TrEMBL record:
Signal peptide: none annotated. Residues 212-505 form the GH10 domain. This is Endo-1,4-beta-xylanase C. It holds the Pfam family CBM_4_9.
């Protein structure tokens, strides 16, 4: 039996139509008195709202499980007498291979607050699917996902390392499967909604009368969605590198040349010759530049001479670094990665006593024209990374605001992938998008492994189509000895499979050339990616046979069709 939901996406493949349930991008950070209804009415979860006692739920480990009812009459499940982190409640589900699963639930703890993760036990091991910082006294939403890479039974359970007299409570639990075709339909739907606009063009003569059967050729000249790639200093002298790079990218970041150890290799001895030369190179070619980075919380990434400085001298060195770098490139970079990886590391804070917010306030005072970024790894790449989980990332942003930082702020997600978990990426972006801040993928690559190019293609499809993402940077600067994790070319600048994926991706999100004819009222209607276009119109009734217009297609405030009148 086919079950067709009221809100559905209609997609087709070669053989038969498919009705895909709409993906629910909703997430809330609010801690509520009562949980919201489960997404997808619970999906394949049995008894998702705990309205049928413990039906479908069993004890995981030695915990005691029971149901309780709130003063408002809401029933939920409780795990108590926990002696191990994974002692909770569980439900057995059937997983299908080549299926995407999204998970959501509402969690609460009996005391304080705790990091809680939803886990899936499979024959191949236990998989984390999503995190939440659960609190006592109110309900917090968890959202995550996992790949169905086998067919058979699996067990959903919850885990928290806070076990001493802490009970876990849960309600409105949902597990929703999507086929690969359905998942792709969500991406296509999001592309049409967030990356493109419907456009209606009318061709009229000099008297304002419509011209029918005019040939219209539409060519995109630039895209509104920024895509860039890191570069190394080899680009200054290697013409092969230049010839490959320049036609592809109008946005870049320097791999190392702006980092502290490069610009101040000896104390109080600045050396900006490479960074300045590369800046001149990109400016001459109208390539925009991200500033990476001002300081780095990882001690291993400091200049050698700064690693063991006494605390007062170290603080002075940091001040000098800011005063040397930021004014020099003020107005010349669009972004700054200010205090790199400050969720995973805290060496600067431990040595100076200054919270990372101090450095953002300082950078903002020095360069109000650039967007200042947090920049972390693991948030979308690794469901095991509790340090920089989406929930922890939002908590860091909240900390910034609480401590009085009101300047510009962007969410930087490095994106250093091994084997990606596509549903987890989407759920993580859903969570982060609630901050209403620009989200950029700042250092995208996939480590060398079988299916590296296929993984890159899948990741790009997910990132580009998510409505929260505003830009993508690849981290593939060419080095003759090999790239950091992912090269796009060989040393003769012939594309590797990963390079072909990038080229194909950039072709697919741009209109290379559309040709159509106007109807009897002089109109054509189409859907165009946001960006700048040249429109060439040809008709025998037009003087000189043809004329050209330049138009810009931008995302509007609503979904109405953009109507333009082009006069001959």
């Amino acid at each position: 039996m086919n079950i067709f939901h009221e809100n559905s996406v209609y997609v087709t493949n070669i053989r038969f139509p498919v009705y895909a349930i709409d993906y629910d991008y909703h997430f809330t950070t609010k801690c509520l008195e009562e949980p919201l209804n489960p997404q997808y009415s619970g999906g394949i979860a049995k008894n998702p709202e705990i309205n049928d006692g413990l039906n479908g739920w069993t004890s995981f480990g030695s915990s005691k499980i029971e149901t309780r009812t709130s003063k408002q009459g809401n029933t939920f499940i409780v795990a108590s007498h926990r002696t191990q982190p994974n002692h909770s409640f569980s439900q057995t589900i059937h997983v299908e291979k080549d299926t995407m699963y999204t998970i959501s639930a509402w969690l609460q703890v009996s005391r304080g607050k705790a990091d809680v993760v939803a886990m899936i036990r499979t024959p191949n091991g236990d998989i984390p699917t999503g995190w939440v910082i659960a609190k006592s006294g109110c309900w917090s939403m968890l959202k995550g996902g996992f790949n169905g890479n086998f067919s058979g039974p699996a067990e959903l359970y919850f885990e928290s390392k806070d076990i001493s007299s802490v009970e876990l409570w849960a309600d409105s639990i949902s597990i929703q499967p999507f086929t690969l075709l359905e998942w792709k339909a969500h991406q296509d739907q999001s592309t049409e909604k967030t990356r493109k606009s419907k456009v209606k063009l009318q061709v009229v003569d000099h008297q304002g009368q419509p011209i029918s059967n005019a040939t219209i050729m539409i060519k995109q000249t630039s895209s509104s969605f920024p895509i860039g790639n890191a570069m190394s200093s080899h680009i200054l002298i290697n013409t092969g590198y230049q010839d490959w790079y320049n036609p592809r990218f109008k946005l870049t970041v320097f791999e190392n040349e702006m980092k502290w150890w490069e610009t101040e290799p000896l104390p109080n001895k600045d050396d900006y010759h490479l960074a300045d030369a590369m800046l001149q190179y990109v400016q001459n070619r109208t390539i925009l530049l991200r500033g990476h980075n001002i300081v780095w919380e990882n001690r291993d990434m400091l200049p050698q001479w700064a690693k063991d400085l006494p605390r007062p001298l170290f603080a002075t060195a940091i001040e000098r670094r800011f005063n040397s770098l930021v004014p020099r490139y003020r107005g010349k970079v669009i972004h700054w990665d200010v205090d790199n990886e400050n969720m995973h590391f805290s060496y600067l804070e431990s040595q100076t006593g200054e919270n990372t917010v101090y450095y953002y306030k300082k950078a903002y005072d020095m360069d109000k024209g650039a967007l200042l970024f947090l920049n972390e790894w693991g948030t979308i790449e690794n469901p095991n990374d509790i340090v920089a989980s989406p929930a922890k990332y939002l908590a860091k942003i909240e900390e910034f605001r609480t401590l009085g930082y009101n300047g510009t702020l962007g969410i930087g997600l490095q994106g250093h992938f091994d084997t990606p978990t596509i549903p987890y990426i989407r759920s993580a972006l859903d969570i982060l998008a609630t901050a209403n801040l620009p989200i950029w993928i700042t250092e995208l690559d996939v480590s060398s492994r079988p299916l590296q190019a296929d993984y890159l293609r899948d990741i790009l499809g997910e990132l580009y189509t998510h409505p929260g993402v505003q830009g993508i940077m690849f981290w593939s600067p060419w080095q003759p000895q090999g790239c950091f994790k992912m090269c796009l070319t060989d040393n003769d600048f012939n594309n590797l499979p990963t390079g072909d994926v990038v080229d194909d991706f950039m072709r697919r999100i741009n209109h290379q050339g559309l040709i159509s004819s106007t109807n009897h009222d002089g109109y054509i209607e189409t859907s165009l990616y946001h960006g700048d276009y040249e429109v060439i119109i040809k008709h025998s009734a037009i003087k000189h046979q043809s004329f050209a217009h330049k138009i810009n297609v931008a995302k509007g405030k609503d979904s109405s069709t953009l109507i333009m009148k082009l006069s001959a």
